[in-house]
Specification:
CATH class: Mainly Alpha
Radius of gyration: 13 Å
CATH architecture: Orthogonal Bundle
Order of helices and strands: EEHHHHHE
Number of helices: 5
Helix content: 40-55%
Number of strands: 3
CATH superfamily: lambda repressor-like DNA-binding domains
């Protein structure tokens, strides 16, 4: 659990290089703002497919893209993307 009492388990995850798992809650926040994938993509300057891959956990965004998405969804990068490092477990 993290701030706000929302469980990380609801997030989609992907395995990043170096043993890091990245979980994303973009779809959840996008729904809160009643945004389509296409609308969010236009707001942040990427293709809709990029948003699809992010939501499915198949793509790890750059810090710049993560920042733009978090700003558009009125939240923080930490709320949208949770990085878990298995090297420390």
């Amino acid at each position: 659990m993290f701030s706000g009492g929302i469980s990380c388990e609801k997030a989609t995850s992907s395995k990043a290089s170096g043993g890091q798992t990245v979980k994303t809650r973009i779809k959840e926040f996008r729904a809160r703002h009643d945004l389509t994938q296409e609308a969010l993509a236009k707001m942040v300057g990427v293709r809709r497919e990029t948003i699809v891959f992010l939501e499915k956990g198949k793509y790890n965004p750059s810090l710049k893209l993560a920042y733009r998405i978090s700003r558009c969804l009125d939240t923080t990068i930490d709320e949208l993307f949770v990085f878990e490092d298995s090297d420390f477990e």
